[in-house]
Amino acid sequence: xxxxxxxxxxxxxxxxxxxxxxxxxxxxxxxxxxxxxxxxxxxxxxxxxxxxxxxxxxxxxxxxxxxxxxxxxxxxxxxxxxxxxxxxxxxxxxxxxxxxxxxxxxxxxxxxxxxxxxxxxxxxxxxxxxxxxxxxxxxxxxxxxxxxxxxxxxxxxxxxxxxxxxxxxxxxxxxxxxxxxxxxxxxxxxxxxxxxxxxxxxxxxxxxxxxxxxxxxxxxxxxxxxxxxxxxxxxxxxxxxxxxxxxxxxxxxxxxxxxxxxxxxxxxxxxxxxxxxxxxxxxxxxxxxxxxxxxxxxxxxxxxxxxxxxxxxxxxxxxxxxxxxxxxxxxxxxxxxxxxxxxxxxxxxxxxxxxxxxxxxxxxxxxxxxxxxxxxxxxxx
Length: 381
Ligand SMILES: C[S@@+](CC[C@H](N)C(=O)[O-])C[C@H]1O[C@@H](n2cnc3c(N)ncnc32)[C@H](O)[C@@H]1O
Fold this sequence. Notes:
This protein is an alpha/beta fold.
């Protein structure tokens, strides 16, 4: 199977050796949690949080790599494709559950009969039950007694966190037809322009007829959901400690400009931590409407929103720093799957790509030679 450099490693090309690796890495994870007084994960519905320290992320990544290799070796390519091929149908089930509010109808406590769920959702019991039962195999719902549905860990998270629910919804819902539909037009888009691509002709444009942010500019409701989805996306991906630690924010004084900062989640988090700094979040008015709701009293006076397009000259001339929010870090083998997914999201939605540190530095210099590259924050872990 594959080692840290992505090459085939003889040492682990053996079922029992891989199983040993899994045990060894699991022991390391459990020990780290114990020594640092973190709770051990359980299947209890509210066992949601996991440590976000760089040490934990590294241990988790090693374990995951061994688990993935072991699973692949056990199932082989036929079963692997069988599972991959069916993922679209699982997303379809999630779409129905999101559109018909299953995640809010099934409460965080107790259980509800499938009949009642179907009635409240306004969907027949036959299809409601089938959707729930497929999602129960994905740790989303449970059927503790026949005919009754209760939350599982993932449903609990979706029930209590509207931002994460929005992230899932904008990615997968057919009624707000966005990213999943755009992704399904990727091959058509490549056919339209097989040898080059740019931000004007993305799979999103192929599918929806106009670029993503023009699409949002025409629809306030979807735009606000997108802002919430960005906040949820940060929660799913961002190692907030890494963002805080990646740059000596404490040494700065003055104003930090968060360019294309959406609802300002990054700025809000940093403002809570670094009281000497003010933040200006630049984005569209709809993103700001969503951001205003996230402000807490302790930082209200230090985080402001400015409607500004990054294609126009930067009006804040004396900023202490600029945050260019969609930075991703260069690949590390353990994170590669998640990063490669982001790379495709960038292609589908924006005609963009994931850049390594070197590529990003070159891009900044191309924009203006006076830019100094300060730090690349690990955003996807
Ligand atoms: C992918 S989101 C990233 C949000 C946030 N920076 C983060 O990293 O989570 C890109 C953001 O850029 C904003 N945006 C797109 N075109 C823009 C423009 N011309 N000027 C300013 N912001 C823009 C979008 O509204 C959106 O909020």
